[in-house]
Amino acid sequence: MTAATRDTSPEAVYPDYLHCLAEADEHAAVEVARGLLDAGVAADRVLLDLVAPAQAEVGERWARNEWSVAQEHAATHVSERVVAAVAAYADVRPTRARIVVACMDGEWHALPARLVAEVLRLRGWQVTFLGASVPAAHLVSYLHRYDAYAVALASALPMRLPTHTG
Fold this sequence. Notes:
The chain is of the alpha/beta class and 166 residues long. It has two domains: 10-90, Methyltransferase, Methionine Synthase (B12-binding Domains), Chain A, domain 1 (Orthogonal Bundle); 98-160, Rossmann fold. It contains six helices and three strands. Strands 2-1-3 form a three-stranded parallel beta sheet, with helices on both faces. Strand 1 (98-104), helix 5 and strand 2 (126-134) form a beta-alpha-beta unit. Helix 1 (10-22) runs antiparallel to helix 2, helix 1 (10-22) crosses helix 3 and helix 2 (26-38) packs parallel to helix 4 (69-90).
């Protein structure tokens, strides 16, 4: 099969991408993603249909004790590099209001929130990504200083979500 006739959908290259994650081969993983972008696949589709499901599989492999914490962290790092490469490739200028995306205090799994932030950015929003484990007081202070149309908070565990106590 020639490169011109090869299926360049996220689903078709998923096994190759997952292999890159398993081998912690960030350069090859970025090449897989760039190949999709060069073939005309929208950047948000690369993130949602390739990176996100592969990262979910990484988490499943860790949960089944097939991968160690170190393997999961290495794969996550590779996916973070791919997200950055896809975002840089697309370089969309914001035309919509600001959305702040942050992980709750104690939430260190920032990649899902980063994926959301980049998809929003690709769709024209001005996104401020605050990253992992943002203390609530610091988030509130930031929001008082920088007005936001919306705030997206990420938490893998419901107990980390804010509650109203009075």
